[in-house]
């Protein structure tokens, strides 16, 4: 009886398969994730501080690292993050590290201030199989609201919704 109480939780924690073809179980997934997330936070420092990519990567990586440090069990990590199995998270983290290296190489934020983009206008007819993405006219309510906001007047309610008072 005593052995059952002790061994049952231990046996429940062993993952035999991920259920995903080609994705093997990582027995020390927590430690691997902590290492990958720490490395990600170090490598992302090479990206300029004000770039949205860096902010996004730092944000979700810090969150995931914190969860991995707080939880000792792979099941709880998966449950709290809600982003798949820990083995999938390991693949995502490795992919992110690869992408960081490529982003640093490509330097998409390194556009000079004086760079001018050439606009090519072509009046050639569009083939029939290519859809024309021309938005339709905006509703009249849009222009009324825009006019009211630009005049700093309270917009007229035309939809029957309650009006907010300041």
UniProtKB/TrEMBL annotation:
One of its GO terms (cellular component) is respiratory chain complex I. Keywords: Electron transport, Membrane, Mitochondrion, Mitochondrion inner membrane, Respiratory chain, Transport. Its main location: mitochondrion. It is found in: Mitochondrion inner membrane. It comes from the Eukaryota. Belongs to the complex I NDUFA5 subunit family. This is NADH-ubiquinone oxidoreductase-related. It comes from Theobroma cacao. The keyword Magnesium does not apply. It is a peripheral membrane protein. InterPro entries: NDUFA5. Signal peptide: none annotated. GO terms for biological process: respiratory electron transport chain. It holds the Pfam family ETC_C1_NDUFA5.
């Amino acid at each position: 009886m005593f052995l059952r109480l002790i061994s049952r939780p231990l046996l429940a924690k062993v993952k035999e398969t991920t259920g995903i073809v080609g994705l093997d179980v990582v027995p020390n997934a927590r430690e691997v994730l902590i290492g990958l997330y720490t490395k990600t936070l170090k490598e992302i420092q090479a990206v300029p501080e004000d770039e949205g990519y860096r902010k996004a990567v730092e944000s979700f990586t810090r969150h995931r690292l914190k969860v991995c440090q707080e939880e000792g069990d792979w099941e709880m990590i998966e449950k709290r993050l809600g982003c798949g199995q820990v083995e999938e998270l390991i693949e995502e983290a490795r992919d992110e590290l690869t992408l960081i290296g490529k982003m640093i190489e490509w330097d998409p934020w390194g556009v000079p201030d004086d760079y001018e983009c050439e606009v090519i206008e072509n009046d050639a007819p569009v083939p029939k199989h290519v859809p024309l993405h021309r938005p339709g006219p905006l509703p009249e309510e849009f222009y009324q609201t825009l006019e009211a906001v630009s005049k700093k007047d309270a917009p007229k309610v035309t939809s029957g919704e309650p009006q907010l008072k300041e």
